[in-house]
Write a structure and sequence with these properties.
This is GTP binding elongation factor GUF1. Helix 1 (6-13) packs across helix 2 (27-43) and helix 10 packs across helix 11 (453-467). The protein is built from 18 helices and 36 strands. It folds into five domains: 138-288, Rossmann fold (3-Layer(aba) Sandwich); 301-385, Elongation Factor Tu (Ef-tu), domain 3, CATH 2.40.30; 403-472, Alpha-Beta Plaits (2-Layer Sandwich); 480-595, Alpha-Beta Plaits, CATH 3.30.70.240; 599-711, Elongation factor 4, C-terminal domain (Alpha-Beta Plaits, 2-Layer Sandwich), CATH 3.30.70. Helix content is 28%, strand content 30%. The protein has 715 residues and is an alpha+beta fold. Strand 21 and strand 22 form a beta hairpin. The strands form nine sheets. It has an eight-stranded antiparallel sheet with strand order 14-13-19-10-11-18-15-16, with helices on one face. Strands 24, 25, 26, 27, 28 and 29 form a six-stranded antiparallel sheet that branches. Bound molecules: guanosine-5'-triphosphate.
Length: 715
């Protein structure tokens, strides 16, 4: 008898126990949980423990349950902790029954029940009914994605589509269901594209609709439209938020016709919030999008288009099958690493993981194959069957980073932890590029490339929230270029034109023929009453007007060539506030142009602040330097001595501010001679100092630099 099957048999034989109220939300979970419990019973518990352990199950989702210990008997809490948090988790894991995580430290004997840890247990695929995906022939499959600017309602539309297809229950609480990350929930934005397979019945046929909800981080919807157009993909124009009082869908239809040459009668007008007309979107997906062009009889070719890392199960690769079939037990090879793996589990995301017997060409799902290292599942890689090697798929054109910043651990002893966190996070977000870097002041670190500033902030926030990392980030910079004249430097770099992503390595003017800065072609569509103000804003950002046309009676489309560094930080915010939110902005890469660039240092009492070294346009150096010094003055606490804050180009000081000396006597608050109060104040002061960085003899709070960065391009 296989040991693995034992708990299943037990649970099947056992009479179905009534779940405590609010306990099991799904039969599968109930079954899985009972299976897990019975294994617990079997393992080693005394009768007393068994009775108590039978009770306390509460679910908090379809495939997740919390085990809470109800008994005030702390010894049971400890048993629970040991079993669930460690021993049992590992035991169940080793048998493929479940994955588990104990949240919080082990309880001490006699601790109050409220302080006991909650143990979260994820039921395993073993206990879920597997779907038969062979019932979806290629002609019944549609792959589609929702692409739009930030806040246009992509995730809300995805919620409605999930509800309409019965993928999730219709409740008041369905808000951005596919936005699963903490940072996405907090900021209300999609950071990571999410996939969901929807099953939809239409005219007697069952369709499989694979949806990808994309982030709107980049202002590149128009550019994306033209990319889709070039690739001859079907585009379904959807006009959202028609429920708003000032919505004017007819006008938007006309604009779409004028700008994109799409007949206005192809537009679908919906309110994703209220669900109005959303079913037409599904109809259009079926009617207007062709089924994928794939071959099930050919050998397997699966494209890895995303991956996540699960502490317990290793790498979960999201795959799109272009050819063939894959199932559990298959031996597959990664075209990138040439390593061979055995497939442990395949399934679809619905929107949570739902195991299937197999995945067939044309389908999109996930695959777990014992990849333990994050680098083993490269996005764009092709997986094929060990016995049937194939030509790899072309993969993806990697996203081009627009902004670079240095990242260093606050404490160098954290270097390895931060390295592993960055590796895991970049597996999750392949648009981030990573190069090793080092600095005299900040130690060993990395230079990371991001799609924009918001992307950088989100990445940083995810490092802090998901990996508890504490990092120093340097001023973001765009990738400048320099054409070298110094033969020594040309020999050193082995090329004449170099790209500079680290301002500290900006070559001196005497060694350079010319500097180049990246430019983008920006498209602004605005009601005409804001045109004047917007033109002034663009000119202040050194932009050159290329075109201006009326796209309807009161809407103007402006095209400007912008230096990239003028728009990456806060151009979009300024444009939105100037136009009361009505102007839209989109940009696409437009190469490089010659520019008069200089490297600017910020000094604190004569010592360079490595985080704030930056490259600026010569004409803006003074105003930017002054703004940084002023803002830094506001962010620095007074210290026992005077602090000179200076902006310098080479040895020339172009701006200066002074922070006056001040003695912060924390004990001044302490009137009496109470020693415990004195100690408390001194301890608090010492804790505060941990958040400081020392530059020379000046102590700088960590957030001081972040505040400073915001002023840069607004000047
Ligand atoms: N009135 C109205 N509000 C809507 C509608 N659709 C979405 N919203 C609101 O618009 C805001 C943004 O919606 P999201 O679905 O997060 O937008 P998104 O495009 O996914 O945003 P990103 O992921 O940040 O790119 C939310 O406050 C929604 O409630 C709609 O049809 N009508």
């Amino acid at each position: 008898m296989s040991r693995r099957r034992a708990p299943c048999r037990r649970q099947q034989a056992a009479p179905r126990r009534a779940a405590p109220s609010g306990c099991f939300r799904s039969w599968y979970l109930g079954r899985a949980t009972r299976g897990l419990l019975s294994s617990l019973h079997r393992v080693c518990l005394s009768p007393v423990h068994r009775t108590l352990l039978g009770v306390p199950l509460k679910t908090n989702g379809l495939c997740c349950c919390c085990l809470l210990v109800p008994s005030p008997d702390a010894s049971i809490a400890r048993v629970m902790w040991t079993l669930v948090g460690r021993g049992w988790g590992a035991h169940a894991l080793s048998r493929g029954w479940a994955t588990g995580a104990a949240l919080g430290p082990a309880p001490t004997f006699g601790a109050a029940p409220e302080s006991w840890p909650t143990c979260r247990v994820y039921s395993s695929a073993e206990f879920k009914e597997k779907l038969d995906m062979s019932r979806f022939p290629v002609e019944n499959i549609r792959n589609f994605s929702i692409v739009a600017h930030v806040d246009h309602g992509k995730s809300t539309l995805a919620d409605r589509l999930l509800e309409l297809t019965g993928t999730i229950d219709k409740t008041e609480n369905n808000k951005q269901v596919l936005d699963k990350l903490q940072v996405e929930r907090e900021r209300g934005i999609t950071v990571k594209a999410q996939t969901a397979s929807l099953f939809y019945n239409c005219e007697g046929k069952q369709y499989l609709l694979n949806l990808i909800d994309t982030p709107g981080i980049q202002a590149q919807t128009v550019a994306n439209f033209f990319l889709a157009f070039e690739a001859q993909l079907s585009v379904i124009p959807v006009i959202n938020k028609i429920d708003l009082k000032n919505a004017d869908p007819e006008r938007v239809e006309n604009q779409i016709e004028k700008v994109f040459d799409i007949p206005s009668d192809e537009c679908i007008k919906i309110s994703a919030k209220l669900g109005t007309n959303v079913e037409s979107v599904l109809q259009a997906v079926i009617e207007r999008i062709p089924p994928p062009k794939v071959h099930r009889k050919n050998p397997l070719r699966a494209l890895v288009f995303d991956s996540t890392f699960d502490q317990y199960r290793g790498v979960i690769a999201n795959v799109a099958l272009f050819d063939g079939v894959v199932s559990k037990g298959d031996k597959i090879v990664s075209a990138h690493t040439q390593k061979t793996y055995e497939v442990n589990e395949v399934g679809v995301l619905n929107p949570n993981e739902q195991p299937t017997h197999k995945l067939y060409a044309g389908q999109v799902g996930y695959l777990i194959a014992g990849m333990k290292n994050v680098i083993e599942a490269q996005i764009g890689d092709t997986l094929y069957l060990h016995k049937q090697p194939v030509e790899p798929l072309p993969g993806f054109k990697s996203a081009k980073p627009m902004v670079f910043a240095g990242m260093y651990p606050v404490d160098q002893s954290e270097y390895n932890n931060l390295k592993s966190a960055i590796e895991k996070l970049t597996l999750n977000d392949s648009s981030v590029t990573v190069h090793r870097d080092s600095s005299l002041a900040l130690g060993a670190g990395w230079r990371l490339g991001f799609l924009g500033l918001l992307h950088m902030e989100v990445f940083n926030q995810r490092l802090e929230q998901e990996y508890n990392a504490s990092v120093i980030l340097t001023t973001p910079t765009v990738p400048y270029k320099a054409v070298l004249s110094s033969s020594k430097l040309i020999k050193e770099y082995r090329e004449k034109e170099i790209t500079i992503i680290n301002p500290a390595q900006f070559p001196d003017k005497s060694k350079v023929t010319e500097y180049l800065e990246p430019v983008v072609l920006g498209t602004i569509i605005t009601p005409d009453e804001y045109t004047g103000k917007i033109m002034m804003l663009c000119e202040a950002r050194r932009a050159v007007q290329k075109n201006m046309i009326f796209i309807d009676q009161n809407r103007v489309m402006l095209k400007y060539l912008f230096p990239l560094n003028e728009i990456v930080v806060d151009f979009y915010d300024s444009l939105k506030s100037l136009s009361s939110g009505y102007a839209s902005f989109d940009y696409e890469d437009a190469g490089y142009q010659t520019a008069e660039l200089v490297k600017m240092d910020i000094l604190l009492n004569g010592n360079t602040v490595e985080e704030l070294v930056t490259v600026v346009h010569k004409d803006k150096a003074h105003s930017i330097g002054k703004a940084i010094c002023e803002r830094l003055k506001d962010s620095l606490p007074r210290q026992l001595f005077e602090i000179a804050i200076q902006a310098a180009i080479g040895s020339k000081i172009i701006a200066r501010e002074t922070v006056k000396a001040y003695r912060k006597n924390v004990l001044a608050k302490c009137y009496g001679g109470d020693i415990t109060r004195k100690m408390k104040l001194l301890k608090r002061q010492a804790e505060g100092k941990k958040k400081l960085r020392k530059i020379g003899n000046v102590e700088v709070p960590k957030d001081a630099f972040i505040k400073v960065l915001k002023t840069r391009s607004s000047k």
